Amino acid sequence: MSRKRKYDDSYIKYGFTEIEVNREIRPQCVICTVVLSNDALKPAKLLRHLHTIHPTLKDQPPEFFEGKCKSLKKMKLGPSGANVALSQQVLTASFEISQLISKSKKAHSIGETLIKPSLLIAANIFGEDAKKKIQNMPLSNNTVKARIGKMSCDIEEQLLGKIKSSPYFALQCDENTDIAQCCQLLVFVRFLDVEDKTIKEELLLSSVLETTSKGIDVMQIISNYFENHNLKWEKLVGFCTDGAPAMLGCRSGLATLVKEKNPSTLTTHCVIHRQALATKTLPEELANVLKLAIKLVNFVKSKALNTRIFKKLCVELDSEYDTLLFHTEVRWLSKENMLKRLYELKEEMKIFLNEKDSELLEKFCDLKFELQFAYLVDIFEHLNNLNLQLQVEEAPEYLQEAVIELQNDSDCKNMFDSGTNLEEFWCRRATLHIQLREIALRYSVVFSTTYLCEQGFSSLLVIKNKQRNRLDVSDDMRLAISNIHPRIEKLVKEMQPQKSN
Questions:
Q1: The pTM is what?
Q2: How far apart are CA 452 and CA 272, in angstroms?
Q3: β-strand pairing of 169-177 with 236-241
């Protein structure tokens, strides 16, 4: 065991006084308050700090540093010797920047490799005081990861509190394979926030399915989460999946297993997935029209030169649009936008195909094709509009009187006619119609699609890429897509201020 070094009063001429940390004497700079290790109690190391960090003060007499030492003793210091107020500012900035890194879905190392160096360049202009604070700001890869983890836990704590306060909630879930061939499960929750009386959607959990992705495997993860966080199955009013056999199987499917926990839960098959399945069973003639439309778009978009020529042609013709849209096989995204854009640029496409002397021109100009193409555009447009329409069921007898009362409530009618959306109407306005409001809110909470999961997987592809394929994404995902703000001030107070090395 190495011998502990002792402080000498003459070290004040190097700008250092003594401080006891964990029953060990250490040197503390009277200028920047940094505390070095006991091993640094050597004139050479203390002098190096003075010349390197405070070069403009190296010729100051001992009396100057003695005055700084007296001021230092009057400051409010933490147990590590750091200025408590300064450390809290630095910690707060560290949390805020870490949150920004997570929201932008960037690598954790960017804090140390780009953000901090950029801030130091600015600090050189703003002055020594700003530079000192930034130098003390911890933004290493591990620090940013730790900050994100703490904020993620805080967001989850707030979310669970809101869910438990809600009279009911609904879930949607889906699984997908990431860049590292890991099967990632995402579960989103929709609930009534009783504080501001709005319906909100948040990521409940993200987890890796270690082996298979059967319904029983997914159910095990969700059940464990419910048990660990005291969530009640009785409050679950809706459960939405993508309709895969593992999700909707009548024996061991996830929906069946959920029904075993709460038989009154409404299990739904994502309506957008249903429409996607419907498009795969088009009549042969319409299917051929769709294939040709896709081929036409690919003819333009698959080559950069063709894309540039087509764009220039559209600009010269003063067209409303100057580019086509790629179709996609992502299951929740319909082909309506792609077809509609091609139809709107059909005359420009004819000119382009003629200039390219393409064999596709004759098929595209065929009258029968044009009629079927227009019909197909209309079909997909109606399918998309269907997602936005309110699906009505007739009210049962025991509710008909309540419905009549609501219909004759002039205040509610005026509120609704003023443009108030359905969620706000039932959450905040129609509070006197308790029975109807209860039913309306239960159905409002239920998910009709798994769109949030698909959006989550898009974020996952950005966060967990080839360069970060070993990353545990759960904390990053929650912080990146959550609408709940972490309580940074609370987290800072819970942490003991420490100086950055």
A1: 0.62
A2: 12
A3: parallel
